[in-house]
Amino acid sequence: MSEPATRVEHNADHTRYEVYVDDELAGHTDYKPADANRAFVHTEIFPRYEGQGLAKVLIRGALDDTRDHQLGVLPFCPFVHRFVQKNPDYLTLVPSWARERMGLPAA
Predict the structure, then answer these.
(1) How do residues 3-52 score in pLDDT, each as one tens digit?
(2) I want to staple 45 with a disulfide (CB 3.0 to 4.6 A). Which of 27, 73, 88, 95 is the partner?
(3) Rounded to an integer, what distance in angstroms lies between the CA atom of residue 26 and that of residue 102?
(4) Which of 22, 84, 92 is nearest to 56 (CA)?
(5) In a 10 Å sphere around its CB, with 0-12 CB exposed, 13-18 middle and 19+ buried, how is residue 8 labelled?
(6) Beta strand segments in the chain, E
(7) CA 90, CA 102: separation in Å to the nearest integer?
């Protein structure tokens, strides 16, 4: 049996990123535009998809796309904050003025 197809899409109309498993919506991470940044405020993986590592896939995809658009990240969502802490290559996305306020190390 093959692995399910997983993809992350930017839903700009709803200011969020969505993760799909075999074309079924499995969760989302919401953000609010904040000047040259995206303030990530909430991440949710639907119950039937929990425990499959989809939050990491979703957040990585959202942050990579945010970087590609040359925007910064304000990780107010605890999942996004923890992801940035555990993956220091994403620290540079958090503006220097916000790192100390959010308890993140300097990049």
Answers:
(1) 779 999 999 999 999 999 999 999 999 999 999 999 999 999 999 999 99
(2) 27
(3) 28
(4) 84
(5) buried
(6) 6-11, 16-21, 24-34, 37-45, 72-75
(7) 14
- Residue identified by tokens 């959202």 is 62
CATH topology of domain 6-100: Aminopeptidase (3.40.630)
Residues 45, 78: contact at Cβ < 8 Å?
no
* Side chain identity at residue 33, one-letter code: P
Nearest to 80 by CA among 99, 101, 103, 62: 62
Residue in the structure block whose two tokens are 């074309």: 23
CB-neighbour burial class of residue 14 (10 A; exposed 0-12, middle 13-18, buried 19+) = exposed
54 Ramachandran zone, left/alpha/beta (phi>0; psi -120 to 50): alpha
Nearest to 37 by CA among 67, 81, 82: 67
